[in-house]
Amino acid sequence: MGVAGHNDPLLGDTTCGSLLQQLQVIWDEVGESDEDRDKMLLQLEQECLDVYRRKVDQASSTRARLLQQLANSKSELTRLLSALGELSVSGIPDKTTGTIKEQLAAISPSLELLCRKRDSRVKEFAEVQLQIQTLRGEITGNLQFGEHLETPHVNEDDLSVKKLNEFLFELQALQKEKSNRLHKILEYVSSVHDLCSVLGMDFVGTVTEVHPSLDDSVGVQSKSISDETLSKLSKMVIGLQEEKSKRFAKIQALASQLSDLWNLMDAPVEERQPFHHITCNMSSTLDEVTVPGALALDVIEEAELEVKRLDQLKASRMKDIAFKKQIELEDIYARAHIAIDTSAARDRIMSIIESSSFQPSELLADMENQILKANEEALSRKDILEKVDRWMSACEEESWLEDYSRDDNRYSATRGAHLNLKRAEKARVLVNKIPAIVDTLVAKTRAWEQEHGLPFTYDGVALLAMLDEYKVLRQEKEDEKRRMRDQKKINDQLAAEQEKLFGSKPSPARPQSSRKVAGARANGGGGAVNGTPVRRLSALQSGGRTASRDGRRDAARPVAPVNYVAIAKEDAVSQASSNHTGPCTP
């Protein structure tokens, strides 16, 4: 028997009551007992309770899940706000009323916004921390050349702007440190390049020994900036500078040797020119040597070979070189008016050269030492010799002034008379200074002799003896002048008496010593004065000998003062003979 109502189109609107009525009808038709009916109704009721219980359980589970979801959303919202360092986000409802789903719907937009912000902040943190780790690795040297680091783990519990700024500040400090280190690296690399260029060394091979990234083909930002690289570069620069200093000192010494050898052997310019790139460093400082290859090993070797060749050539020409040095030594002594035995010195040189134990370097060193000592001695005598020259010049002017004063035509309108007049004025001023010049010269000479413990000689004659004799001669001259003035007064008195007795004054004969000054003498030339020879200072004492290169007396030496006493006596005799001419017979 089928169940009624299964195919009823109105079953969708059937209720529990209608279904129970249909069941009663069916039971009535079947003839079910009341007991069976009660059992079936109790079963139906139990089944309904089970269905309701399951639905209630499902609803409770759904509510619990939604409540947990709401709690998680609120907790995540709070955690994100804390991690991002924000107090609140716009759009979050202040009220917590309403159904669970309404509350979830209200929180979801803000939660999604914070999640997006978190993801963006995490990306920023990761990028900054990656740069920081990279820079730290570059500075410490732990990051190998060409190596790339993995993205670091970001702590999502603190994604605040403050924390990000701290990382950014650290990043800026590291970037500044890298910039400074790069600047130092580039300076060192530039120094290594310049030094390698001057020293003739391979720059790339040298600098890549420190680190492969220092090659020019590698970008600036990719170069190693580690402490180890900086230390190695610094040591390399110092080492190259020391090597440059050593080579510079060596090249200067070789250049000096070349120059000395060329000068000794009078090498022509054509022979010196190929080594100009070496000798040009003689007057340069270390920092001025910047020409590529100027201090290369092959250049030094080239100079050493040339010095060796010239040394061998010098040994064969030692005689000429030694005598050239001797001539230089004699010239120094001649200019300093020091008398030496030139013949003995030359004989000594020949005996040394001809000896079996002859060493050219020792002979040249000895002669250089003699020249050095001669220059020192000449320098110590320079001040006194200048005073001697001034004294001799004043004496010559005094001699010229006397000749000029005896010239009767000195005031005539002849050519050059005004020049002689001006010279006479200057000569009188200079002559008045002669006593002071002599006193100063004596004091300086005595001080020199006391300091050096030996007499000061001038062409082999003691200078103090010359000055003493000059003082005696000058005093005799002054005495003679006074006697001549007294004699002139007597002659004038005799002439006045004769005029009274005879009525006329006899005309005196022209003095023999009164002559016209020679043109050359009047214009400053040297020579004899009125026939009286001019003597050399060395002739004041016997035994003096002038040192010169050929052992003969130097004809160009300054002249000593004139023997004024002899001149004065000659003039006095001439004047007296003319004044004592007998009177004419009336």
TrEMBL record:
The keyword Endoplasmic reticulum does not apply. Residues 49-76, 463-497 form a coiled coil. One of its GO terms (cellular component) is microtubule. Gene3D superfamilies: 1.20.58.1520. Keywords: Coiled coil, Cytoplasm, Microtubule, Nucleus, Phosphoprotein. It is found in: Cytoplasm; Nucleus. InterPro entries: MAP65_Ase1_PRC1. It comes from the Eukaryota. Residues 547-556 have a biased composition (Basic and acidic residues). Pfam families: MAP65_ASE1. Residues 499-559 are annotated as: Disordered. PANTHER family: FASCETTO-RELATED, PROTEIN REGULATOR OF CYTOKINESIS 1 PRC1-RELATED. Belongs to the MAP65/ASE1 family. This is Microtubule-associated protein MAP65-1a. It comes from Urochloa decumbens.
